[in-house]
Amino acid sequence: AAVSVQTPLLNTCMDAKHHKRQPGPEGKLHAQCSPWKDSACCTANTSSEAHKDQSNLYNFNWNHCGVMPPKCKRHFIQDTCLYECSPNLGPWINQVDSSWRRERILHVPLCKEDCEEWWEDCRDALTCKENWHKGWNWATGTNHCPWGFMCRPFSKVFPRPKDLCEKIWSNSYRYSGQRRGSGLCIQMWFDPARGNPNVAVAKYYA
Fold first, then answer.
1. pLDDT at 9
2. What sections of the protein cross the membrane (predicted)?
3. Which of 22, 42, 68, 190 is most buried by its number of CB atoms within 10 A?
4. Over the stretch 100-151, which tens digit does the pLDDT of each residue have?
5. Cα–Cα separations (whole angstroms), residue 98 to 11, 14, 137, 154
6. Chain centroid to CA 128: how far?
7. What is the pLDDT of residue 116?
8. What's the pLDDT at 100?
9. How far is it, in rounded angstroms, from Cα 161 to Cα 128?
10. How many of the other CB atoms lie within 10 Å of CB of 80?
């Protein structure tokens, strides 16, 4: 009985805008999304859109305060790949009543290094908002800073790595303090040649 209760939390895709119904192999996943090719919740098309400055996925513009530096942007691409492609987020999927998705992730324990490297590589990039999920000016069809919001360095908007990871997507992530390889935190970055470490993490939390 325990097994049948746990199974839905493992190897599963959330009910959201671009996710497949079931995870499966995707041979042509693009660039930074390719680690998930053996078992993915995203299609090849979604994976290539995840790499564009102005992607069709959500019409979201990374460059809302000038051009985002490439070393920063790669973390946002990786974050998008994890969100769209990972079949290992089941323990943190929550129901949500939203026009564009029925489920979201909440408090995914992100590994310490993933948070800290993201913050370090983005500290000098500019943004005008702490929470990127809501509150933008969408008058032109893409996100612009709301009136009266100043562009400031990430390090001022997010004083610590924890602030960036937890606040930017409304607590989708939690800064876990656990290290990569501990089996206790989800990795945005991993080497697929050594297997997907998040499979064991999902199993642990399930």
1. 80
2. none
3. 42
4. 678 788 899 999 999 999 999 999 999 999 999 889 998 988 889 999 999 9
5. 24, 13, 18, 28
6. 20
7. 97
8. 62
9. 17
10. 23
In a domain, 89, yes or no: yes
Cα dihedral 9, 13, 15, 16 sign:
positive
Q: Which two tokens stand for residue 131?
A: 């929470």
**Torsional class of 31: left (φ above 0), alpha (ψ -120 to 50), beta (otherwise):** left
Cα–Cα distance, 190 to 125 (Å, whole number): 24
Please report the pLDDT score of residue 119 as a whole number. Answer: 97
Confirm whether 168 is domain-assigned: yes
Distance CA 174, CA 159 (A): 16
How far is it, in rounded angstroms, from Cα 185 to Cα 188?
A: 10
User: Pairing relation of β-strands 108-110 and 173-175?
Assistant: parallel
- Residue 33, pLDDT score: 85
Nearest CA-CA partner of 189 in 60, 65, 55, 34: 34
110, 186 in Cβ contact below 8 A? yes
Within the chain, what is the greatest distance between any pair of CA atoms?
A: 56
Low-confidence stretches of the chain (pLDDT < 50) are 1-6
Cα distance between residue 50 and residue 63, in whole Å = 14
Residue 83: give the domain boundaries: 31-133+146-205
Inside any domain, residue 23:
no
Beta strands in the chain (DSSP E): 93-95, 103-105, 108-110, 126-127, 152-153, 173-175
Total domains present in the chain: 1
